[in-house]
TrEMBL record:
The gene is pfp. InterPro entries: ATP_PFK, PfpB_PPi_PFK, Phosphofructokinase_dom, PKF_sf. It catalyses: beta-D-fructose 6-phosphate + diphosphate = beta-D-fructose 1,6-bisphosphate + phosphate + H(+). This is Pyrophosphate--fructose 6-phosphate 1-phosphotransferase. Mg(2+) binds at D173. It comes from Proteiniphilum saccharofermentans.
Length: 552
């Protein structure tokens, strides 16, 4: 592998980790837990892994070790997120410290590798090539769902053959839901295989009291914020364009909010606020056009608008439409596919309720079509394919043209659209993600040594120096609730949305009116890996506000 100068320098970086994981560890168990919602249903579905305690690791006397080698399998599941390689490195170092003959096997291209028995042993030479690097290319990732007994049994064949005692699934909420189901099944048949999850998603929507943040969020937001800052500097230099910038975040607006806190744009839409205020698409267009008009009155015919990827689904009327579309297509996809493309719009209109049919009919042709494209593996519309940034830019232009005729707007409006997605998913991890991910992986190895299954690796107190971080595990069932998927109620991990009463949003809310009319941009610049702690090791603004109540 040819390496850049930065990769060569980063290879020697030793991740910082909690004192509680250094040397030997003891485990401290809390009280019994319950699921966040739907307790009776979740307990019935997970009788063997429900109600387990939250656990914490503390330093103990002596050296760590076990009498027999511990063979572990690892899967990277779902979309890429910066730091995944360091999770694997942390697992490797952890199990090697437990016993030098322990082995780590990586299943190729995600859960599919477990089912199809495609794997490779991850040796020290391989691990060392990938330490502190971005991407998931050490073994690749995939989106195959582990949900059937046939898959579980097929996977168990290779786990038994390789004498693997534990499987670590590194993924987001859906992947960890699969991990929870798999842990329950293997426990129910006494398979002798533990299953541990690690919280990954750049979207930031896998978090709770025990999981402060999902890995990759910090790095991705810093990458997007650098790009937004660059655009804002160009914007402030040319002074003639409005930039509509869509960022990742299908189910929550954490990325949009964090990027706004880092860059101070003129407008940032928060999907959760749109839903809470029951705003219509017209309301949103009026708000954006209003800010543009205010700036035009000051001679400022330029600005930036940050848009979360999943905005459309949070507009109440659109949410109802999409919900009905998802349910309809879950049961009628084949019939829909047989309809000629030219007739698909009318076909859908004829099948929807009157209210939703009227909304669907009012949408531009391109957006209407995007709402009926192939579903994701969970039966949901792929909102990243909906060009919300272009839709808003076009509709704002129409609104401003109308206001010009009415004498309400006297500025000049030109727009440029952007979508930042893949740019942040495989970036070289920030120091925060480098350290956090390594600690998550090492913690997973300690959960395995402690005999735990159905747990998610947890590292908390991460706005403090790494030595003060708190490592442990949280039962995955604790995060579960019942939701409709593919037209049926299924147990899934509850997504964490932006809290409108939380400190990050409240701070943004207190500043946004000023940011709207002023040109008070921040230009964060690229991620720094070497230098002063206050430059290199800063956690996200979101975490700082959540835990400290202020931004450093």
């Amino acid at each position: 592998m040819t390496k850049s100068a930065l990769q060569i320098a980063r290879a020697s970086y030793v991740p910082k980790m909690p004192e509680g994981l250094k040397g030997n560890v003891d485990i401290r168990e809390g009280a019994a837990t319950q699921s966040v919602l739907d307790q009776e249903e979740i307990q019935k579905l997970f009788p063997n892994t429900y109600g387990m305690p939250v656990v914490q690791f503390i330093q103990a006397a002596g050296e760590p070790g076990v009498s027999e080698p511990v063979n572990v399998g690892v899967i990277l599941s779902g979309g890429q997120a910066p730091g995944g390689h360091n999770v694997i490195a942390g697992i490797f170092d952890g199990i090697k410290r437990l016993h030098s003959d322990s082995k780590l096997y990586g299943f190729i291209l995600g859960p599919d590798g477990l089912v199809k028995h495609t794997y490779k042993e991850l040796t020290a030479d391989i691990i060392d090539e990938y330490r502190n690097t971005g991407g998931f290319d050490i073994i690749g990732s995939g989106r195959t769902k582990l949900e059937t007994k046939e898959q579980f049994d097929k996977g168990l064949e290779i786990l038994k053959k390789l004498d693997i005692k534990a499987l670590v699934i590194i993924g987001g909420d859906d992947s960890n839901t699969n991990a929870c189901v798999l842990a329950e099944y293997y426990a129910s048949i006494n398979a002798g295989v533990q299953v541990i999850g690690c919280p990954k998603t750049i979207d930031g929507d896998l978090k709770n009291e025990q999981i402060e943040t999902s890995f990759g969020f910090d790095t991705a937001c810093k990458v997007y914020s650098e790009l937004i800052g660059n655009i804002q500097r160009d914007c402030n230099s040319a002074r003639k364009y409005w930039h509509f910038i869509k960022v990742m975040g299908r189910s929550a607006s954490h990325i949009a909010l964090e990027c706004a806190l880092q860059t101070q744009p003129n407008i940032c839409l928060i999907s959760e606020e749109v839903a809470a205020k029951e705003q219509s698409l017209d309301d949103i267009i009026d708000y954006i056009a209003g800010v543009i008009t205010q700036r035009a009155e000051k001679g400022l015919n330029f600005g930036t608008v940050i848009i979360p990827e999943g905005l459309i689904e949070f507009i109440p009327a659109m949410k109802k439409l999409i919900h009905e579309l998802n349910d309809f297509l879950a049961h009628n996809q084949e019939e829909f596919n047989l309809v000629r493309r030219s007739g698909q719009r009318d076909y859908i209109i004829s099948k929807l309720s009157k209210e939703n049919a009227d909304i669907y009919a009012s949408l531009p042709e391109t957006v209407a079509r995007q709402l009926t494209l192939d579903r994701d593996p969970h039966g949901n519309v792929q909102v990243s394919l909906i060009e919300t940034e272009k839709l808003l830019a076009e509709m704002v232009k129409k609104r401003l043209d109308a206001w010009t005729k009415e004498g309400r707007y006297k500025g000049k409006f030109s727009s440029i659209t952007h979508f930042f997605g893949y740019e942040g998913r495989c970036a070289a991890p920030s120091n925060y993600d480098t350290d956090y991910c390594y600690s998550l992986g090492y913690t997973a190895s300690m959960l395995i040594a402690a005999g735990k299954t159905g747990y998610m690796s947890s590292v908390r107190n991460t706005t403090a120096p790494a030595a003060e971080w708190i490592a442990g595990g949280v039962p995955i069932t604790m995060m579960m609730n019942m939701e409709r998927r593919h037209g049926e109620m299924k147990p899934v991990i509850q997504k964490a949305l932006v809290e409108l009463n939380g400190a990050p949003f409240k701070y943004f809310e207190s500043q946004r009116d000023q940011w709207a009319v002023e040109t008070d941009y921040v230009y964060p610049g690229p991620i720094q890996y070497f230098g002063p702690t206050e430059v290199c090791d800063q956690p996200s603004k979101t975490l700082q506000l959540e835990q400290k109540g202020n931004i450093e």
